[in-house]
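A favour, since you know our structure tokens better than I do. Would you make up a two-line entry for one protein for me to read? Write everything out right here, beneath this request.
=====
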Amino acid sequence: MIEIRTVSSRTDLNRFIAFPNRLFKEVPSYIPPLNSDERKLLGDKNPSLVNCSRELYLAWRDGKVVGRVAAIINRAVNEHWNKKAVRFGWFDFIEDYDVFTALLDKVVDYGRRHGMTEIEGPFGFTDMDKECWVIDNFDARQNSTTLYNPEYYVRFIERAGYDIRCRWQQYKMPASQPVPDKVARLNGLIMEKYHLRLLKFKSRKEVYPYAFKFFRTLNQSFKDLYDFVPYNEAEIAAYIKEYFPFINLDFVHFIVDQDDNLIAFGLSIPDLSQAYKKANGRLFPFGWYHLLKALRNFDTIDLLLNGVHPDWQKRGVHSIYYSEMNLKAIEHHVHTAYTNPQIIGNEAEKIWEQQYSVTPLMQRAIFGKKI
């Protein structure tokens, strides 16, 4: 018999966080997140709770946890996109369709009790959280910022009558592709014509004054992407604190206009996937060592975020930070780069396909249905 219990204690939350680490312990491509990061996201101090409500559930059978799920309602997203959707996230379960449906039914019930008329996921609270399931090439290499799932997740959700709402594509590419002379000359002309500057940072202290500008430009760049809603000031502050300590200054590419407005960005990080795997969810006693080592010695990078303010799109500005990424990769002897998921058909995805030697790595999708 399957019993679904609401997470109501710290012990329950620890079980919720630990479950996928146990379920996928022997899976080479699974990258466990840090337990401390998960507690911040799922606890009561997450700044996204200004706009969100949530409930966490564990599935039990024979005294063991066999699945978990988060039911989330993001009021800002629903208002912005004129919908009434409950989200499922942090959705993991053994290969048992009854466990799958029992957990998903709790999310549907939570949504109906709060007036929702549809369900979709996997999503987090915001787009900075891990989202969307792999739908092909399930054993491919994962970024430390992407969501792992086995094939049976997709098989089960399709069996339950869910449709794909949106698709993403990830790519692998040689990171040290030379920048053609023609492209370099064109970039110089663009910067001269529009009086643009590519910022160079010598210390993190120099980056932080541009951190809020970066997120505000990101908000504008991503505003038309599927289910995106701008990050609030508290969320931005939390993301700066969480992510900026990991950045390598040579892979921060900010472009500003003559008034020092940040108009475009390309942000990459060293590959941390194996460091996270070795840490196995814990910073102490040795997790911090693996992360520091990965930040200093790397030959692979993750292309984390890139975008151009809408007022500057279709002027070739993206080519400037892409070229700089290439040059820095060559300088650091980086041989491979992996993109984060790109919505199929959007401008960034077209650029990868048209201008770079890339290998499609995997597709991902969000699923949904009426309830």
Observations:
- The chain has a mean pLDDT of 92.
- The radius of gyration is 21 Å.
- The CA atoms of residues 226 and 361 lie 21 Å apart.
- Residues 173-363 form a domain with the Aminopeptidase fold (CATH 3.40.630.30).
